[in-house]
Amino acid sequence: MFVFNCKINFDEQLKYPKNELDKKKFKKSKLNKVIDSVADIKIDGDDDEQFDLFKPVECINCNTEIGVYDEKEELYHFFNVLASHS
Fold it and tell me: Would the pTM count as exceeding 0.85?
């Protein structure tokens, strides 16, 4: 599957507690924006073990946040987006 008309915002980072993450029921409302700038990122070993880290995904036309990207799994999680075939 390919992703079109989307961009990953590498300037922000989102984190979500690992013990509460159910990938089948992934909800945008439960994500917490914790870091505004990549330059401010300081992640300890503890933080890495307790949280999953994501990058926000935005529409290239209107900059609406439409999902997140998991860099470890190389997987997109979209919220309320319909797929279409070209």
Answer: no
